[in-house]
Specification:
2 domains, alpha+beta, D-amino Acid Aminotransferase, Chain A, domain 1, two-stranded antiparallel ribbon, 239 residues, 7 helices
């Protein structure tokens, strides 16, 4: 579980809710969602309030992400990343606030544009990291993309810089795009995600799209019943 926070450097801190990043491979996140299906409203308000107060007390300025392990109703601090994360779009989707704009505003001395009471959480959002990798072994798959088609429609966002004819080099991170889907609730979000994944086409290289198509139809994922070891066990069982 991670909390998205902002501070103005002058004693004000706010939180933008939490994200669940439990689906991982080799300690790298592949699927993130907000709000977390594991937390109730009381737990959500508690951890958000603790993080916002800490940011205010520290006099922290800018965007930050505070990460925790969550088990048996308790939060255990892991680390803080003093920046926005790859998965920040799911928070933007449920709050309607441009976090990159907010980060630049604070960095330029403009302060925070919102108070905690101004931040409203609406609906549910999920992000899938589309990597140029084998969907089972996660072996990198460099090469030329021969056809690239992104999904569209209500609640669908794709962040990517690749295109048909783009050459994926073998030297860098394998992330080639992020699919972000928002719905009025988690059920609607999952339905839209299933359709978007079916519409997403990347030919010429291997990607993790087939893995996400499997996951979106899995009962545990549909029920939000997964932890940080779930994906490793699932892949081992499939093999």
């Amino acid at each position: 579980i991670e909390a998205q926070v902002f501070g103005d450097g002058a004693g004000r801190g706010v939180h933008f809710g939490e994200r669940d990043c439990s689906l991982q491979r080799r300690h790298q996140k592949v699927w993130e969602e907000a709000p977390s299906p594991a937390l109730n409203a009381e737990e959500r308000a508690h951890i958000g309030g603790v993080c916002a107060k800490a940011i205010a007390d520290l006099g922290y300025s800018g965007a930050g992400t505070i990460e925790f392990l969550y088990e048996n109703g308790e939060f255990y601090f892991i680390e803080m990343n003093t920046r926005l994360q790859v998965e920040h779009p799911v928070t933007e989707a449920i709050t309607g606030i441009d976090l990159v704009h907010e980060q630049i505003r604070v960095a330029s001395g403009g302060g925070l544009s919102v108070r905690q009471e101004d931040i409203r959480f609406q609906g549910h959002a999920i992000e899938c990291r589309i990597n140029a990798e084998d969907p089972r072994t996660f072996t990198p798959s460099p090469g030329t993309i021969t056809h690239f088609h992104t999904p569209g429609g209500l609640g669908i966002r794709v962040d990517s810089g690749v295109y048909s004819g783009y050459k994926i080099p073998p030297y860098y991170d394998s992330l080639i795009g992020k699919l972000i889907v928002h719905g009025r609730n988690r059920v609607e979000c999952m339905m839209r995600l299933r359709r978007a994944l079916d519409e997403f086409v990347v030919d010429g290289i291997k990607t993790t799209l087939p893995l996400f198509r499997d996951l979106v139809g899995n009962a545990d994922i549909a029920n939000g019943e997964y932890d940080i070891h779930w994906l490793e066990k699932y892949l081992a069982k499939e093999d």
